[in-house]
Design a protein that fits this description.
single chain; 7-stranded mixed β-sheet; 8-stranded mixed β-sheet; Rossmann fold; 17 helices; alpha/beta; binds adenosine-5'-triphosphate; binds magnesium ion; VC0802-like; 15 strands; 2 domains
């Protein structure tokens, strides 16, 4: 039996939503590319639901997605919201609230086409009104005013949205405790979406994070510090659909190897991977740079180190298929982020550096950090290696000037980079969980072995490593 009759068959029980309608925002403007974006979102959202122990099916309907709730698992209410962990529906909404590409979710009662439309597309009002009345009674609050909003997605359905809204509104007043309509500031909205294949009635829209599905906007490598800004910068790139990997430079590599779960940066990426899905974190000790500059007391040390960090990240990005770097710079926030320094840092590289926060004020950044759950982690005590390298940065620098210093102080620059990357520890994440912790050298050896076997007898095997396996993703 279809669960579309859940409402009408059990008159004493609460109305259980039998689906969740997902709205998709700007993705729907993608014209012929829309299917590619939608398919990726179906894949990402299904993986997130599975990770939360939910195996409900996602179905595209017009420019929305619909999660179908099997009757035996329907346990929430139409008023369910993210954060309600006790029901499956609540957990589903919590999970979807973190998926880039989803603009909003709304638990709905779906009524099949034959239950509310005649064959010539006339609405059989009594069949649409019956569940609406039950829902209206269930959520009735004395004194509150309401509105009915109809979205007639299929233009063949007879009657204008306004006519249908008026008729349904009248019915709610005549047959329930609701007394007054308020078009401008209603205390409660009844949403009725009408498609030829079904009507979807709901009372609540929950906001999503918006943006685009991860995997539709390329691949970036984000430089992550222990501070507030760079996690927010990374989140903004994830939200715009980028596969995002991370690199962090540390003065304390031992702590990470001994207790990865305790490490602040690992916990930060674990939190970001709730949005990103799969991600890898490269933790690089700053020791090789320090050793190379031993004995030099240049006042440009911090600027040299920042160029060194971006150069290492560039190597990782190039080898792993990343097209750009991401940093948390905000113009003028600190001495190392003046326009001159931002430009001289960019000039050291072949790859572009993206700075999603360049025009943000600190309080805007803090606001987002709180919203995405990184703020409390950011303010935990942590010794960023930049602070250990030099207290103050010069506010002015040019590329030529820094290049000259590098030629003089770091004659074996490429070797210092290679040794630093070889000393790295790599942590792989998936949807808020640590998958594995490996040494970069072991990881590269494994990848080279896989490539060697790929060149040999196993070449016909279709499950071989990608060319980027040594640093980007491990092909399992
Ligand atoms: P944040 O809050 O992100 O630490 P900040 O205002 O403290 O930013 P800086 O310390 O000057 O600024 O760092 C600027 C950017 O350089 C950071 O946003 C980050 O992208 C990168 N960065 C700084 N320290 C590190 C590090 N230890 N490892 C990797 N990237 C770093
Ligand atoms: Mg910092």
């Amino acid at each position: 039996m279809s669960n579309d009759t859940t409402c009408t068959n059990r008159p004493d029980s609460v109305v259980r939503p039998n689906c969740v309608v997902i709205s998709l925002g700007e993705m729907t403007l993608k014209g012929r590319n829309y299917n590619r974006f939608r398919n990726r979102l179906v894949k990402n959202a299904s993986a997130v639901l599975r990770a939360h122990g939910i195996s409900w099916r996602l179905k595209p309907i017009y420019n929305r997605l619909v999660v179908e709730i099997p009757e035996s698992e329907a346990d929430g209410t139409l008023d369910a919201a993210p954060g309600e962990e006790k029901t499956r529906l609540g957990r589903c909404l919590t999970a979807l609230a973190r998926v880039p590409g989803i603009v909003g979710t709304s638990p709905r009662l779906r009524i099949r086409q034959h239950q509310f439309l005649t064959s010539d597309k006339q609405i059989r009002y009594e069949l649409l009104e019956e569940p609406l009345i039950r829902i209206a009674q269930e959520v009735h609050e004395p004194g509150l005013e309401f509105v009915v909003r109809v979205n007639r997605a299929d233009r063949w359905i007879k009657g204008t949205s306004q006519q249908i809204e008026r008729r349904l509104g009248r019915t709610v007043i005549e047959r329930t405790g609701w007394e007054k309509v308020n078009l401008k500031k209603p205390g409660r909205t009844f949403y009725v979406d009408l498609h030829t294949e079904g009507a979807y009635i709901g009372v609540r829209k929950n906001p999503g994070i918006g943006g685009l599905p991860v995997g539709t906007s390329g691949h970036v490598m984000s430089l992550l510090s222990g501070g507030i800004d760079s996690p927010v910068a990374s989140f903004l790139m994830i939200k715009r659909g980028c596969r995002t990997d991370f690199v962090h430079f540390t003065a304390d590599p031992v702590n990470l190897r001994m207790q990865p779960e305790e490490n602040k940066i690992v916990r930060m990426v674990r939190q970001l991977s709730e949005y990103a899905g799969e991600a890898s974190l490269w933790v690089i000790p700053e020791t090789q740079f320090d050793l190379a500059l031993l004995g030099s007391d240049t006042p440009y040390k911090l600027l040299l180190f920042r160029r060194f960090m971006t150069r290492c990240a560039e190597r990782l990005a190039q080898r792993g298929g990343g097209a750009a770097l991401v940093v948390g710079d905000s113009l003028g926030q600190v001495a190392s982020q003046t326009l001159e320094n931002v430009i001289s840092n960019s000039s050291a590289l072949d790859i572009p550096i993206l700075r999603p926060l360049i025009g943000y004020d600190k309080d805007e950044i803090v606001h987002t950090a709180r919203r995405i759950g990184t703020y409390d982690l950011s303010i935990e005590a942590y010794k960023d290696c930049c602070a250990m390298i030099a207290r103050k940065a010069r506010t002015r620098s040019t590329h030529a000037q820094l290049q000259e210093l590098e030629d003089e102080l770091l004659p074996n620059y490429e070797e210092v980079i290679a040794r630093s990357i070889a000393d790295a520890t790599v942590v792989d994440f998936e949807l808020g969980k640590i998958k594995q912790v490996t040494d970069a050298s072991a990881r590269n050896r494994d990848a080279e072995d896989e490539e060697a076997s790929e060149d040999g007898e196993g070449a016909a095997d279709t499950t071989v490593a990608t060319p980027h396996a040594p640093i980007g993703r491990r092909t399992q």
